[in-house]
Amino acid sequence: MDGRTGDSPLITAYRGGKPSRRPVWFMRQAGRSLPEYRELRKGVAMLDSCLDPQLASEITLQPVRRHDVDAGIFFSDIVIPLKLAGVGVDIVPGVGPVLDTPIRTAADVAALPTLTDEALEPIREAVRLTVDQLGKTPLVGFAGAPFTLAAYMVEGKPSRDHLGPRTMMHADPLAWRALTQWAADASGMFLRAQLEAGASAGQLFDSWAGSLGLADYTRYVAPASARALDHVRGLGAPLVHFGTGTSELLGAMHDVGVDVMGVDYRLPLDEANRRLGGAVPLQGNIDPALLSAPWEVLEAHVRAVIAAGEAAPGHVLNLGHGVPPETDPDVLTRMVELIHSIQPS
Question: Rounded distance, CA 203 to CA 194, Å?
Answer without folding.
Answer: 11
